[in-house]
Amino acid sequence: xxxxxxxxxxxxxxxxxxxxxxxxxxxxxxxxxxxxxxxxxxxxxxxxxxxxxxxxxxxxxxxxxxxxxxxxxxxxxxxxxxxxxxxxxxxxxxxxxxxxxxxxxxxxxxxxxxxxxxxxxxxxxxxxxxxxxxxxxxxxxxxxxxxxxxxxxxxxxxxxxx
Length: 162
Hints:
By secondary structure, the chain is an alpha+beta fold. Helix content is 42%, strand content 22%. It has 6 helices and 4 strands. Helix 5 packs across helix 6. It is globular and about 50 Å long.
């Protein structure tokens, strides 16, 4: 029903739908007047990196048919009547991981079938980076430069923030 939910989460969905604004308006409809919306999409930087090596069907229906720059995502969210509270960039680990995963896959091999030493090594390197005293700074710098996804937390424009 209209105005039912206090929190509405849409994670990694908008890139799959032909009309993201229509989909977003529908999930806004189910949120109450003070609902919080948590929305994530793959970031264009990570998508464009993976797109250089992924099979073409990965970027065809029903997979990723939309790629959102930061501005595109903000315009979509704002244009549908939401006020952005936070816009974060996350998961740079996965941008590099998926580049390696697609790059080392054999023809017709799925991502779940491919277990390659490069992805195992990357995971180990990442774990070591995070253990380092500067690990948080490196993590944040990579998220700023090459995020896998972006997250917007929003509310309806004019909603009571208290």
